[in-house]
Amino acid sequence: MTEPSKSDKDLTGFMPICVMLCIIGWEYTGLAVLSLLAGLFAAATILVFLTRTSASRMAFAAIAVGLIAWAAATRGDWLFAVGVATQRGALVVALFTALGAIRTAAMSSDSILECGRFLARQRPGLRYASLTVGGHLFGLILLYGSISLLGSLAAESLARDPDDDIRRIRTRRMMVAIQRGFASTLCWSPLGFSMAITLTLVPGTGWAQIAPACIASALMMLLTGWALDTIMKPRVARPAPARAPQEGRWLVQLRPLLVLLSVVMSGVLLLHLLTGVEVIGAVMSLVPAVAIGWVALQPRPDGIGRAAWTGSRIMAFVTQDLPRYRGELVLLFMAGFIGSLGAFLLVPVLEARGLDLSAAPTWLVLVALIWVIPLTGQIGMNPILAVSLIVPLLPSAQEMGIPAVALVAAITGGWALSGTTSPFTASVLIAAALGRVTPREAGLGWNGLYTLVMGTILSLWVLLLAAA
């Protein structure tokens, strides 16, 4: 949460807070009125934010309006479908708001920043491994903010390198390590959009059941990235200047981050087991509470009480931080809305044309998900949009005769690969800006071979899961 300021107050930030509170209430009670209110607040939030966002976001709004008109003209149950799509968008807004609270609290923590500096300043032989593991650990809490944080600290540590060639090579390797570390969280993290959306689209399973297989996918991504970096490490004509080793023991230096992760992950799992609420509901209710507690423990100016300081930081988050995220909120809501409503409209079109995806071989459906999701990212489709559009068109895991975990692993694996290659995703855009290259170069240029190798490994993995 940012430092409180007496200026730049924007009360529109209360609207996504209302969405989050309604979704939390609905997750625990199942009351339809709370789901309805969440959708109404989400729609109002997007309408207000649209007036102050870019033309590209307006284009998504135009597509959404066109889909609503198409649905109204062709389907008698169109209002129900629009309601479902709005609730899907509201879920994304609520999760983004909850995670935004802990992300902004972390960015103001000196102990978290020191964790990042420790990882970024490791000697070259350990740097890739430290940053890819760090990118994973930070990514669990900060999402793509981990790339911004660690990437900035990496650039800071490289500023002392006098050789341009060595600095350019190190910049690329460090950014790639952080990118791949973050992307691997998309395979399994209960705090990420990938898992939240996928579990709503694949019925009959929960996070606890699919976590072991999806964590294995993440480990494969981390190890494959490290192996490729080791094998293809570029050689330089001049030896790099020697550096003093970074002092400090790993567990001691990373303790603040590990403690935070332990509190959040164990708390989410415990809340899920004790209350029976879905993991997404546990995340949204626990994470903001942890963020508030963390802010309360952080240093504050002299003469200001803890309660007053914490309250002012919360107000700064609501009235300053959230309104600044309006572009991201509009994009994420529209991705969920368009994907859900688009799938609703496409199903009868495919049936009328005799296209029955249930007749496709199961192995082909699973493998296609690994590759199609990152391919759609190359043409500008956010993974939320691609997954929300594609998955409802497919037969269920039960109809295909496979464990649901195989379908979930295929979806999240493809989502993770899109996170390393799509020039339109936040993770690639941030890496490109910090690496001073184009998004295409930071995506396919840096990770093209990695995606081919990792896509093949994940394809074999999901087929193995399907056969189990």
From TrEMBL:
Membrane-spanning ranges: 21-49, 55-73, 80-102, 137-159, 180-201, 207-229, 250-273, 329-350, 362-394, 406-434, 446-467
Source organism, top-level taxon: Bacteria
Keywords per UniProt: Membrane, Transmembrane, Transmembrane helix
Keyword Transmembrane helix: yes
Protein's name according to its UniProt entry: H+/citrate symporter
